[in-house]
Amino acid sequence: MNDDRLYTIDTIRIPKRTTVCEWAQAHHYLKRTASFFRYDKYPFMVEPTNAMGNISTTWGVVIQCPSQTSKTTACMNFLGWMCEYDRQNTMVILDTANQAVNLSKNRLKPFLRDICHIHNDEQAITNPDKSNSSVNISLGTGANLILGSAKSASTLCSYPSKYVILDEIDRYPTALEGEGDPISLAMQRQMTYRGLTLFTSTPTTVEDSRIHKQWLLGTMEVWSVRCPSCNKLFSPTWKDIDWTDENVPTTHCPNCGELWTEADIICMEHAYAQLNDNPQTDKYKRILRSFSINGLLCHAQYTWHSLREYERAALQIGEAAVASFRNTRLGECYTSPTEIRIDHVELFRACGMRYDDSCIPEDIDFITVGIDTHETGLYMLIMGWTLDLQYAYGLSYHFLAGDPDEAGVWQQLVEQMNRKFTRADGVTLMPAFAFADVGGHRGNAVMTNSLLNPRLKPCKGFASSGNSTQIDPLVRRSFSMNFTNGIKGKCEIVEVGVTAGKDALLQMEKLTLAGEKHLGFNHKKCFDLAFFKSLTSEIRIGSRWVAPQKGAQYNESMDCAVYSMACARYYYDRFYATGKDREAVYRSQPKEQTEMKKKIEQDEAVEPKTIAKEKAKRGRKTKQEAEEIKTEKAAEKVPEKSAEPKVEPPVKKFKHL
User: Which of 87, 182, 264, 280 would staple 150 via disulfide (CB 3.0–4.6 Å)?
Assistant: First the structure.
């Protein structure tokens, strides 16, 4: 046997698994530049690309970015890494079949041939079972790369795959006739694998953008810079750039307010800032990582002045060109100027405060509760308000599960309404009133329990007529109705102008985003991103409020906030301003004075009753009390003697004398 055929254990080399970026920089050779691929121009793609190879903790990766920022190259690098370390069935879905064929012929096949050394032409000649189709490429070892269209249900439902790459998902059809959602159909092909799904696209509008909705489900990581002044991450936005000096535009850090130029931003440390700590997980407890790339921080692709020129050209063309600029250059979802909406992520950042039940803000004057009634329970929001109703603070938000027709859920509500909150100056407050909706769900149960609990008021929301000449009040009127469902009595129902409430809430949100802090919520309690998404779920178009998605209105927290605001207005007008609130006098005093004053008033009110009870208990009077009473009676009955001289009566003389 020849020596060159003898192999020892030292000659066996097991390749060490690297990250996707390390593999790309070591193997992805670019012929046109005669060099290996580098991430120097695309630093924002390093973290998303490495997340693709970490399938043990990640089930999906979402990349929302501007156009021409190397997202397709990142997908190809992942395919090369997969062919090197885990060659399995893979499906790549594009918006049309022509796009799939063009991608296969122009980029994927040359990449697999030159970089991954997979020669499909030779395999097809030597083995007829090996596919040489542009949409079905053999990877060897029984694995295939399938390219298909999102409009073809047969492609989406035919091949089981471990890895699924969904490119430009915002161009996908909403549904296939008789089949359903194309994204869901493609992901069903992974049921037998513990694989990975990759979502990439340039965003469109907020209502229709699939990539933006997927990004909201994940970790919500935003490409940001670290401010040297406060050492916090922030992502500059296009609307915050100050063009007062056209030559040197500036932006400010939202955390500390420090001004920075574009040159300063380029020199800062760049990193991803994670906004969601509770991303979506699968049955293996793997998370969905989602990344959003800001066009202002793609320094190798755009400068701020070049973006300014693109915007000016788009404004001259029209609204469609402006939408394209926002989507493809900045990587942002476009919002029509006729629509007024609040970004729940920005509001989440602006409303952040730290307090608890034992130390709530000092400027809270009273507390109210807003309740949205549902078939399966009660959504309740406890908020603290100032006297002018211009500042509000969220204290608690809960879903009380249970049938509203049963007593259990209302007992939970009573416990929540009896909670005590202590201000920073020592004053203790309790919820004054609560408004519960009787619009369409279990109205009889609400009215029944309102008769048992005087602090619970039924309310019914009414939208405004749309007449701009009439002012829609927050609390329209209240009326009484006889109620005989189990309990007889008169039930007071309050009409709430929900349009006025939503307008007032919108104004407070705008002022908070502007830095005036009219809304405050404690993020560490129960006010997470899901709460703010529900709080800003509706948009204002003209004079109407509409939900962005028909049939999917998750606006419970918005309704609760409006009812709590209406309850605060009702309470102030009916009780606080008229002096009917007995506890209001103590709310402006420190805790020590308040307790002392209450004790003195209680003693003065209780002392006469206590003395009378003690006397009745003894049943007899002391000697001193008896003498005092005798003296008082004598003084009342015996008149005072006059100082006139005494006149003696005449002496009578008898005859026999």
Answer: 182
Same domain, yes or no, for 221 and 138? yes
Task: List Cβ<8 Å contacts ≥24 apart for 503-508.
Answer: 503/540, 504/389, 504/474, 504/565, 505/558, 505/561, 505/562, 505/565, 506/340, 506/342, 506/540, 508/390, 508/392
Is residue 546 located within the same domain as residue 470? Answer: yes
Same domain, 84 and 168: yes
Report if residue 599 sits inside a domain. Answer: no
267 is written with which tokens? 């020199």
368 phi, psi to nearest 5 deg: -130, 165
CA distance 368 to 306: 51
CB 581 within 8 A of CB 572: no
Q: Is 14 inside any structural domain?
A: no
Residue 646 lies in a domain: no
Provide the token pair at 273.
Answer: 């800032």
> Cα–Cα distances in Å, from 168 out to 94, 162, 219, 220?
7, 20, 20, 19
Residue 131 tokens, joined: 């596919």
- Name which of 440, 457, 449, 455 is nearest 373 in CA terms: 440
Q: Answer yes or no: is pLDDT of 208 > 90.
A: no
At how many degrees (to 10) do helices 20-27 and 71-85 cross? 90
Mean model confidence pLDDT for the chain: 81
Tokens of 26: 């070591």
**Rounded distance between C-alpha atoms, residue 400 and residue 409, angstroms:** 6
Question: pLDDT for 439-459, tens place per residue?
Answer: 666 778 888 888 888 888 888
Q: 278 and 415 share a domain? A: no
Q: Which residue has the higher pLDDT, 170 or 630?
A: 170
Q: What is the pLDDT of residue 12?
A: 52
Comparing C-alpha atoms, which of 70, 30, 128 is closest to residue 331? 70
Helix (H) or strand (E) segment spanning residue 381? strand 377-385
The answer to whether the CB of 495 falls within 8 A of the CB of 460 is yes
Q: What percent of the chain has pLDDT over 70?
A: 79
- Do 253 and 234 form a contact (C-beta atoms < 8 A)? yes
pLDDT-derived band at 468 (thresholds 50, 70, 90) equals very low
What does DSSP say about strands 163-167 and 143-149: parallel, antiparallel, or unpaired? unpaired
Q: Number of folded domains in the chain?
A: 2
CA distances 331 to 223, 279, 293, 309, Å, are 11, 22, 7, 17
What pTM was computed for the model? Answer: 0.59
Is residue 164 included in any domain, yes or no?
Answer: yes
**pLDDT reported for residue 120:** 60
Q: Give yes or no: residues 85 and 147 share one domain.
A: yes
- Amino acid code (one letter) for 440: G
> In terms of residue numbers, what domain contains 537?
353-586
Whole-number Å distance between alpha carbons of 93 and 172: 10
